[in-house]
Amino acid sequence: MLARLPEYIDPLHLADKRGELKGQIPISRLDRLADILFSDTGTVTVELFFGREGRLAKVEGQIEAVLELECQNCLQAVQWPVKNTVKLGIVTSLDQADRLPEDYEPLLVDEGKILLKNIVEDELLLILPTFPKHQHQCLAQKPDNAKVDFVQNEQQSPPENPFSILAKLKNTGDL
Predict the structure, then answer these.
(1) Do the beta carbons of residue 34 and residue 125 sit within 8 Å?
(2) Taking all residues of the chain, what is their mean pLDDT, rounded to a whole number?
(3) pTM for this structure?
């Protein structure tokens, strides 16, 4: 595995050369993912293979990481293992994207280089849960005393009748 992956890549050039990229990207470099994470420690392991299948330039591989997300129940850290298979068709227009085989997602590129971390970050953002939470029941159970206090308060003060003002007006004859 490479100690360091290139920052910018030319996917079409790599597809022509049947290139492969293997290495790790620090999670702290994935800016768009930072808002969702509880902590940005760790790395994403990337294995991408570029090639051609007829006229189709493609990227296939795998992205693997353990992300630390914020549990939506208890607001604490939850470890979220991610192992995603990448299958992208490299296209230069929306017309080409429409003609991709069904099992390929489009990777729209202009002539030139793109950020490798954007590909990785897009794949991670697409597979993250909307509401991450622990597998177990993580909310702290409140004691039943809170219910009892609420019930006792209800019994001490009778509920106010919203029509009590009308009743008073009726008795005084001002109605």
Answers:
(1) no
(2) 78
(3) 0.67
